[in-house]
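pinging the channel bc i need a second pair of eyes. not urgent but kinda urgent?? the chain im working w is below, pasted from the shared doc
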Amino acid sequence: MNVVLVGFMGTGKTSIGMELSRLTGMPFVDTDEIISRAEQRSVPAIFKEHGEAYFRGIEREVVAAVALRRGVIVATGGGVMQDAANVKALRSSGIIVWLKTEPEVILRRTMSENGSRPLLNVDEPLKEIKRLLALRKTNYAQADITMDTSFISVGEAASDISARLALAKPTVRVELGDRSYDIMIGRGVLGGLAARLKGLRPTGVAIISNPTVFSLYGEQVERAISEYGFRPVRVIIPDGESYKDLMWYQKIMGDLLSARFDRRAVIVALGGGVIGDMAGFAAATYMRGIRCVQVPTTLLAQVDSSVGGKTGVNHPLGKNMIGAFFQPSLVIMDQDVLATLPEREMRAGMAEIIKYGVIRDAELFDMLGRNRDEILSRGPMLERIIARSCAIKADVVAADEREGGVRAILNYGHTVGHAIETLTGYTRYLHGEAIAIGMRVAAELAVRMKLTGKDKAAAIRKLIKSYGLPTSIPSEMRAEALMDAMLLDKKAVGKKLKFILPTDIGAVKIVDDVEDATLRKALASATKGEEA
């Protein structure tokens, strides 16, 4: 997203833009400077030699070119918003911020510039400033955000813009060509949601959530979105995995149709993995695809389901068997929302983070062991490991968006975990708890197949247990039932099960030739709580 600064001369567009660039690391461009370099003369000289019409023509070309860039801070000339073509181009590339300043302050700031403002070379410059401001007011009002810079410093203005757009927060980029998107991670980033939505130029906004999450954050999000001129449609789904089905999917579809949403509408998924999956699937299928912004409110959803574009609903015979690959337009992960997350949900989310350590990052695995108390107390280390987990998943997804190869490693622990969820009706275990058991089984299966050592499996089991997660299959669950459920998993091909098995901490292998007898032994030992 570009941040475009517009406003009259002397409002601070260049100085604030440069400071905003320093704060955020985003490149800075000034359209007047680009024009001056191209013409090899100053803007006043261009006006004097060729007139304003000539200058505006060049400006239009420069603005069109700058609008094709992404992730830049843009300072524009004072008259740029007078041209409808400029407005259209700038709106297509990001957020427009109107820097508004009192006429007397503008005069004071421009008086010392010795004729560098050709439009003010008149007998009564203050009167001219007021006249031009009156003429341009309607044009400037097309901006998304207005900020009065009359009596604040450059630093204060830049900091305020950065905060309102959540720009100075750590981001992870998922690189998928024209489907690429940012994952914003940090504290307070939820405050930038409304402005970011405005930048998507939606014709309508729907917030899909559950009663628990909506009671905590829904009204705040609705109010912020309403301030940007939208009246969001509220769609509330009951809380729990058992509601992630076609009946409630149909409810979402009905609400979107009743609101007469078109293809330029945007869905905001405000909740955990269930909400994210259902909202994403609704976005993927409504009118064959509308945009979706994921706002995950659980740790599990932040590090797993909100990233990567897997969407869907469950069927009584299998988890996530009905769905689609559909990437979001943006993911916003606010660490502040985790303060209200129940302890059990917090620990369940850690299962997916442990997974990333096992499959790709031995350093992360060790970090989880050394910093357990700080992480569970939701200290600063938590944001770091979330960012690292998202970066790992982003890299894997970028390499294999539709799980034709390497992306399968993200399913470590999921073959057995999904089977346990299915057999218990999605009610006994949280997703992360079931995956924790699945990771333990996969590690012990790797030992039995001589792919890794007992010490590695023991280290995995120990770390899982240290976060208060289960590692044993329920004693009443038969191996035959588990194996039948696994064959219904979407990762099974024919009669062959696909397992992701660790070869070391930080490395795994995709295996599809596991013998039934070996699998039965691993399941039996995990049921009894034994070691391989």
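so The longest strand covers residues 318-325. and The mean pLDDT is 93. — does that match what u expected or am i reading it wrong
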